[in-house]
Fold:
Amino acid sequence: MHRPAAPPVPVPGGGRTEADERKRASNNARALDVGLVDGSDAFALANILGDEATPRERELAGALWGGAMRRVGTANLGAKDARTATALTKFERLAQILPSLNGLRKLRYEGDLDTSDANEAILLVVSEYVRELPKNKIGELVKGDTVSGQTSAIKTLAEEHFGRAVICESGGRLLKRSLQSMRREDGPGGERRYSAPMRRGMLDELARLDSGFDVRSAGWPQDRWAMMQASHQAFMRGGEPGCTEAGKFAAAKGICWKHICWRCPLTGGLATSVHETTGAAHLRVTLGIVPIKDQTGKAKRVPCPIVSKHPAGRPLDDVTCPYTAIRASWDARIGSRPWSELQHLPFFVGPDGLSAVTTEQVRDAAIRPAAECLGYVAASFGSSALRRGGATDAKANLGAERAKALIQARGRWLDKDIGDIYARGSLEDQAALSAALLGGRSFTTMEEAYPGWVQPTRWARR
Structure:
């Protein structure tokens, strides 16, 4: 059996870096050193081979086991390892104050309530310590959500070490109530920081020759403009055209050349779509996008069609057209490498013209310079400004309900309310509501007309 050499650093899905691996190893070592878990009780290689196994079989089984454990260890994204390290720091401080503090223990069997209760008691003390003693820089209590996250990180680290839960399914009730009480003490969460949307009209202004924002020159200006137009059309987060600043571009999740389709799969010709109002055919390009926030790796690549601003047949010379912008970036670089190589490389690149554009570059080298050219406060625009602008424009032109349904169908928001959060409310709509409340129309309610009948709180199916 031939085994290919294992990579020095496993990076499944491109979600981990060498720094993440060092952090994970450090977390495991710290957990053992502080006594949070017992090294002798770790999930270890079971006797998967019979007594008659040959030395060669045992060698291969050990190699497979090592590979499996490396894969298990790299299942988390790097941000989780960072949160675990912060939580471990709190546990280490508590252990200095209570040097006799017990660590978490593995349940001896399903329904081991004694061990479960002991582990829950330790986590209760940990959460109370995190809440009360380590203040932030201005002396306020650590927020309940933060306490919950850090306590959960400690619990999860132990469970990954043991390979099983540390609290029975019927346990954990007091810990849950304690964390709930902390959240109630905190009161409502703080207001979201204002993040301005970059809308269609603003993009059109940037395309003017006198805007001060270059969208025509070859290289980064042209590629940046294609990225901005695509982000507005496909409601992309700052990291979705390429990758996060700390992450590594992965062809499995990022947008490569092969994920941009210009042709109709049925006819082989350039793809077109019929405009629902005019009936004219418009050119269409489709981007395949995976949500960057997918933690499970289960999200499928969803096709996001983008149509030309003008009917097919017109020359592609309008730089305000998203189809034209993406096509110009494509045509400028399509011959740079053989397709066998190019198809796996990132399409949306940063200023160097090679590496995948990062979240920071989207914000600091594209969105904020554009905002400055338009006379806005650049700091008000974040990396998701084009995503917000697209959602707002969709709501303004399609109506709230239809826009929301189509955005969700495009695979950009699955949560029921997240589209409403990103799409900005309309001042004109609120003014129309106010005017309606001043109207003089009156009517008789059903309850007035039929005494004894009260409108139900729920309408049952009849």
